[in-house]
Write a structure and sequence with these properties.
With 190 residues, this protein is an alpha/beta fold. The chain has five helices and seven strands, in the order E-H-E-E-E-H-E-H-E-H-E-H. The radius of gyration is 18 Å and the shape is globular.
């Protein structure tokens, strides 16, 4: 799968950008996007992350989706992290860059019905929008066999499975003493 990121043209002219619906500290998709950006930059690519929703603490690390057209060329690659309906995802067909869909799967909407109706709507819409977006995607990447089957079932044939990369170093932090005191004992807790 690494060959996906080795375009024919010289690396200095090709940029590999990413699109996410929202970015948040500690979020799995956000972590994946930041890890991939780090790898791409290390390999010599110019790489920016674009999001529709950006919290203040991450404003310096990514750009608003509205700025993406400034970077959009047929020479570039755009990686779209797909997991829910959004403006950025339904506008994918209109972007010029070659597109790779990183499919993080879509939570079945009925899990959200009695919890968050808006989330249920975005999941339902994400599932229904996907077949209309796929004809404009050059390649699809899924992080599990389950997701890969789901992506192929939706109609994308050029796909690959890629194990999700996790930065375990960020998990090497000392335990919180208050939490340890509260949960120290023989009972099993989750």
């Amino acid at each position: 799968t690494y060959k996906i990121f080795q375009p024919q043209r010289h690396r200095n002219t090709v940029e590999v950008h990413q699109l996410v619906t929202s970015i948040a500290p500690g979020d799995a998709i956000s972590n994946a996007a930041f890890s991939l950006q780090k790898l791409l930059r290390k390999e010599g690519f110019k790489s920016e992350i674009f999001a529709e929703q950006i919290p203040a603490e991450l404003a310096g690390r990514c750009n608003h989706l509205g700025r993406y057209p400034e970077f959009d060329t047929t020479e570039n690659i755009l990686i779209a992290h797909y997991s829910i309906a959004s403006i950025g995802m339904i506008t994918l067909p209109y972007f010029k860059a070659r597109k790779i869909l990183f499919y993080h799967n879509i939570t079945p909407y009925h899990y959200w019905i009695n919890i968050n109706v808006l989330a249920a709507f975005h999941c339902l819409r994400g599932k229904s929008d996907l077949p209309g977006i796929l004809p404009f995607i050059q390649y699809g990447v899924a992080f599990s066999n389950f997701s890969l089957k789901d992506l192929r079932k939706a109609g994308l044939t050029k796909t690959a499975w890629l194990p999700l990369q996790i930065d375990v170093d960020r998990l090497k932090i000392p335990p919180d003493p208050i939490m340890m005191k509260n949960f120290n004992g023989k009972e099993k807790r989750i």
